[in-house]
Amino acid sequence: MPAGHRRARAAPELSRRDDLLRAAARLFVDRGFAATTTRDIAQAVGMRSGSPFYHFRSKQELLKAAMIEGLEAGQRRLQAAINGVDDPARRLRLMIRTHFGNLLEGDCHTPMLIHESRSLDAAARAEVAAASDRYQAAWQGTLDELAACGRLRSSGSPVRLLLFGMLNWSGQWYRPDGPLSLDEIAEAAAELLLR
Amino acid sequence: MPAGHRRARAAPELSRRDDLLRAAARLFVDRGFAATTTRDIAQAVGMRSGSPFYHFRSKQELLKAAMIEGLEAGQRRLQAAINGVDDPARRLRLMIRTHFGNLLEGDCHTPMLIHESRSLDAAARAEVAAASDRYQAAWQGTLDELAACGRLRSSGSPVRLLLFGMLNWSGQWYRPDGPLSLDEIAEAAAELLLR
DNA sequence: CCTACCGATCGGTAGG
DNA sequence: CCTACCGATCGGTAGG
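The joint structure predicted for all components is written out below.
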């Protein structure tokens, strides 16, 4: 039994670390950072209470890594989705839909953790803020382009922030089995921005 | 010294209860429910660690009361602001600006606590949800009226939810000493909705 | 990665 | 509303 499986899982340490990251992200999103126990996280991946600390120095480090790596994975999905798309309006629609995916599909939902960075110390919070800025910077170019050709309702400075509000707040009310699909919600959000 | 002040503060028990509620709301908003200690709350109003439990049965009850009473106070401000205003577009602008006040001015910021209702048991969560629904119901009439006369960008069903997203998410980025005033942000949000 | 454990903190209570 | 306190839980560590 151990023989045939050797190649299936390369670098088992990395995979375990990833398991912890994914379980932590899910629990942090569901219950909040402070209400989640390192024991909960360990149990979610079948470890004992002390073992997560073999992979991460502290609970805060787990949160920091989950947020940064989750944001970077989301950013890669964003770039892949708009790769080669010239029309900025179509690009915006794709970004909105992809962001909903990062936020509400899959099993990490990292963008919903942004508020938990208040639980980090200043240094870690700065690292997370930098990753979050990189994620948002990817949007500014498309918004500027739309504003330049007059296709944005409002080119005022809070537009990007209001847009992220519409999108990120959906984590509070969206239900996969509800009456609205993510495609529909994404379309409605784009409609509000585009002229 | 005790003589002359007797009339200044009527019903001191109620006032102490209110002090606790305000301090709790502020701390819950700043640090989150789970990360806030009942000792923190007691200290914030000059009590000893056991004393909040003379006014509230449990930490959860404190959260429930802070949320419900805060939402009701906000709803009263909302109604007062639009009292006698006939133009639905102007009413919407006033509601948005007043909601920003409930959210970001004063010292309770109750709407930012909605996410913390996950820390309540099912019965308490239902009570809070009912108060939150009443708060949101006040908006639906105005939105319907605007949709009926074609002055809403989109009359799709998620518009109210997307609107609340724009507004409530601002708690994540708005700074009183930042470049944008609440008047400007409120105006930008209204611009996105109105045609 | 597990076992066994520690010190600190926390929500809540008794009794006044 | 305070004093004094309890039981439980939690993040983290030593040592293997």
